[in-house]
Design brief:
The strands form 6 sheets. Strands 18, 19, 20, 21, 22, 23, 24, 25 and 26 form a 9-stranded mixed β-sheet that branches. Strands 1, 2, 3, 5, 6, 14 and 15 form a 7-stranded mixed β-sheet that branches. The chain is an alpha/beta fold and 742 residues long. The chain is 46% helix and 20% strand. Helix 10 (250-259) crosses helix 12 and helix 23 (676-690) packs antiparallel against helix 24.
């Protein structure tokens, strides 16, 4: 097996493969362990989804009867006498509420009951008192409340204590025998599935209302909602197990009371609870029977009605018909404020209302059992895919694909969440992608730097930097054979440099060449050209090797025009520094040549050979003859037509070639527009010349010569016209001029 890998992969690739697989194995271990800091990140990622994509279309079924600051100001401090609570319940029933649930646990007897007050006065003040005219039913507020609980759709809150769920601050630890009614639960199980009692949260103790109240209530429901490790409330258990019986949450009990549905169905899988069915509504849960709360927004999303408005009959008759009311508090002093994903100060009672809303509207967020498997497979897949891609591609090339992959994972996860309300966390996939990419990129960087040092140490003194870069990418490229390729070649030369240099000292000549060649070569390389060599004051450069360059003809022409423009700026410096200006000629041609390492076995250079190289050099030489700064061949015109203005100069046979070549000069369109009249007249004159209408052509060339914009070119054609007028060329004249010198 090891020999297979050695044959299939290079050493660097094997290192990357080993590290990439190791990173995925590490992530698989973390996925299995689920460390706290990653659970924290996953919860925060879930909060981002919920915050960004939550639906604010809440149903109007749940309402909150709020013991708020207004109620405390109007009706007195909390706790209120139980007769006032009884009045509140009966008023809600009278307004048409389908069920009323209290997010309050009436643990202690009401110490404001007249009978209790009489006992306290006698014990503490030694006073025997009688209260005359008080009906017997009003002597004990708890009995009064119990009486009314029997007569309406009322649900009392209880609290369960477990090892997994902590006691809320402010709730008494005292427990007593609880007379609370369990829920009727049917269980649908498959072979190998556990009992619901084994996976549901199991209560060790319960904090219950007074027996007189709990026995009188139609139903009871637990208010226990466990926060996650970051103290944020995201899930709620729908059922609790206590003494081998099932007990519903306050929201579920209130909904059962309102709808008349007397039982729920728990569907089991081999891993635990899969869902809870309420009537025809299937509520997805985790394996412990917890439902993800699909919050609709921050606090006050649902309708809040001040308890004092109910007691003072400020609502319209029947205004609460069919509603499910939760009595709770948003008053800060009563300490029922909790942190939720969308609001750090969220009244706990509104969480129960949100659960009712989710069930009523069948709008659930679910994370089914198979979601964990999908997350695991996605994590491994992205890690291995990143590894294999980085084995063959540069890290820099991978940035965009990896960004696309990251965006794709986010889009897929978001699409599942928004369209199907399925939460598939991309967290571990993102971590594995980032970890694998960073590790492998660092290794590749280290290995490449090591290779660069070796290659630079071995070849930097006699190979061009671009060639060294290519060798570092592929050491096998270090050969003499080369390849045939379509290349754009550019030659440039300083006019009369020998005579100019005679006016300068050797040091000044060196400085002049440095001042001229530095910006020119920079323009070439900035336009993706490869500098081949300096030949004294001449420069040879080419495009499309060693790397493929798109639109290489255009880039070479752009570089030539920039060099001409830059020379104008340089000449302002040269006239001050050296006392003269310089002129250059550039020739550009594109064609097939052989490119590669040329030379001997001991010393070689990366360069070009071929007939097209010679032609490019001839074009540069012709700039002197035609008085032009730039001459290009037909191949450049064909590749760049429409992007630059081209002016035909002549059809020629250069020295050493038989086939004629049409030559042009080129301008930017803005520059050509400034000379439009002149160029149009020249074009007409040249057409007359080719039609052998030499007299008419000469007249136009003389008019152009008078402008003194192109004296050498126009005088050349005037002389030709004079010669051809005298010679009367025959039908075999093709307009091609043969050059005898380079």
């Amino acid at each position: 097996m090891l020999s297979f890998f050695k044959k299939a992969f290079k050493v660097d690739q094997l290192i990357l493969l080993t590290v990439g697989i190791g990173a995925s194995v590490l992530m698989a271990a973390l996925f299995a362990i689920q460390p706290q800091f990653l659970r924290f990140l996953d919860n925060k990622l879930y909060d981002q989804y919920l915050s960004k994509y939550h639906s604010s279309n809440a149903t109007d079924i749940p309402i909150i009867v709020d013991i708020d600051e207004k109620s405390l100001a109007e009706m007195g401090q909390w706790p209120w006498p139980r007769y006032r609570v009884a009045m509140l319940l009966k008023m809600l029933q009278a307004y048409g509420a389908a069920s009323v649930a209290t997010d309050i646990i009436f643990v202690e007897p009401d110490k404001t009951s007249p009978s209790i007050l009489q006992k306290q006065w006698k014990k503490e003040l030694k006073l025997d008192t009688k209260i005359e005219g008080l009906p017997e039913s009003l002597r004990d507020n708890d009995k009064l409340l119990a009486h009314y609980l029997k007569t309406g759709p009322f649900v009392l809150g209880i609290d369960f204590l477990t090892q997994a769920l902590s006691i809320e601050e402010g709730i008494a630890h005292q427990t007593r025998d609880c007379f609370i009614k369990p829920a009727k639960v049917a269980v649908l199980s498959v072979p190998g599935s556990p009992s619901p009692h084994d996976v549901l949260f199991k209560a060790e103790e319960a904090i219950c209302p007074l027996p007189v109240l709990s026995m009188a209530a139609q139903r009871t429901g637990f208010i226990t909602i466990a926060a996650d490790e970051d103290s944020i409330y995201r899930k709620v258990p729908l059922l609790f197990s206590w003494n081998d019986k099932y007990y519903p949450s306050l929201a579920l009990a209130a909904l059962m009371q309102a709808t008349g549905i007397k039982s729920v169905v728990v569907k089991m899988s081999t891993s635990g609870i899969e869902s809870v069915r309420f009537g025809k509504i299937v509520i997805p849960t985790d394996h412990r029977g917890r439902m993800l709360i699909n919050y609709r927004g921050p606090s006050k999303t649902f309708r809040y009605i001040s308890a004092s408005d109910i007691l003072n009959k400020r609502l319209l008759p029947g205004e609460l018909q069919g509603k499910i009311a939760f009595i709770g508090t948003s008053a800060a002093g009563l300490k029922d404020i909790r942190a939720m994903p969308l609001d750090p100060s969220y009244p706990g009672v509104e969480a129960h209302a949100t659960i009712i809303d989710n069930i009523w509207s069948k709008d659930f967020i679910s994370k089914p059992d198979w979601a964990t498997g999908v997350e695991f497979i996605a994590m491994l897949s992205i890690g291995l895919a990143t590894t294999f891609l980085l084995m063959w591609a540069k890290a820099l090339w991978m940035i965009i694909p990896l960004i696309v992959a990251s965006a794709g994972m986010w889009y897929g996860s978001t699409e599942l969440y928004t369209e199907h309300k399925l939460y598939i966390s991309p967290l571990y996939s993102y971590i594995n992608l980032a970890l694998t990419f960073l590790l492998l990129t660092m290794i590749k960087f280290w290995r490449e730097e090591h290779a660069k040092k070796f290659i630079h140490g071995a070849f930097a003194h006699y190979l061009a930097p671009s060639v060294i870069s290519q060798i570092m990418e592929d050491p096998d490229a270090l050969s003499l054979e080369g390849q045939e390729k379509d290349i754009t070649i550019q030659f440039s030369d300083v006019r009369s440099f020998t005579s100019l240099s005679e006016k300068l000292t050797p040091t000044q000549v060196t400085n002049l060449l440095h001042d001229y060649l530095t910006p020119m070569t920079r323009i070439i390389t900035e336009n993706q050209g490869t500098l081949d060599k300096f030949i004294g004051d001449a420069v040879m450069a080419f495009w499309n090797a060693p790397l493929d360059i798109e639109n290489h003809q255009e880039k070479s022409l752009e570089a030539a025009l920039l060099q001409i423009e830059k020379l104008g700026d340089l000449n302002e410096i040269f006239i001050e520094k050296y006392g003269f200006t310089i002129a250059v000629g550039l020739g550009i041609h594109s064609g097939s040549v052989r490119v590669g390492n040329m030379g001997s076995a001991d010393l070689f250079d990366y360069t070009l050979i071929g007939d097209n190289v010679n032609l490019a050099s001839r074009l540069e030489g012709l700039t002197k003859f035609y008085g032009q700064k730039l001459i290009v061949s037909q191949t450049i015109v064909d590749a760049c037509e429409g992007k630059y203005y081209f002016r035909i100069l002549d059809s020629v046979r250069v020295k050493g070639k038989v086939e004629p070549v049409t030559i042009y000069t080129s301008y930017r369109y803005d520059d050509a527009k400034k000379r439009q009249a002149e160029l149009d007249k020249y074009e007409k004159a040249h057409e007359l010349y080719l039609k052998k209408q030499f007299t008419e052509a000469k007249k136009l060339f003389e008019e152009l010569d008078a402008i003194e914009m192109e004296p050498l070119l126009y005088k050349l054609y005037i002389e030709r016209c004079d010669h051809l007028i005298d010679e009367h060329p025959g039908d075999d004249w093709d307009g091609v001029f043969t050059h005898k010198t380079k």
